[in-house]
Amino acid sequence: MTTTEAAAQSLSIGEVAERTGLSVHALRFYEREGLLVDPVQRTSGGRRRYTSLDVDWLLICVKLRESGMPLADLKHFAELVRRGPGNEEERLRLLDAHRQRVDARIQALEECRSVITWKVGVYAEHLAGGEAGGLWDPTA
Asked: What is the pTM of this model?
């Protein structure tokens, strides 16, 4: 691919923000914190230009952060990927530990949902029977 072709396929920071759901500020922060695998390319005028691979990586980062991965772990993961082959087992351990934390959060949320569903049923039953006046009434 020629430089011209690469430039034609590159994306501005605004386009990347739109595709990833990250703000322009967040994209600059990710770059400063070393969360990207490759350095962000710049135009001769200093404007950031991203590749489709940058966008793919950022979409993974978004999901890892949305699922609660600490910034330090994400930074470490990016560093491992940048280093290249030879550390796949460490990457796997990091991702598996995060998956286990996500699984625990999902289980806790499912337990919360069960309690809420039960309570919704109690209220619905009492309201349908016209007996809702005393539910959790602190003066009763």
From this structure: 0.81
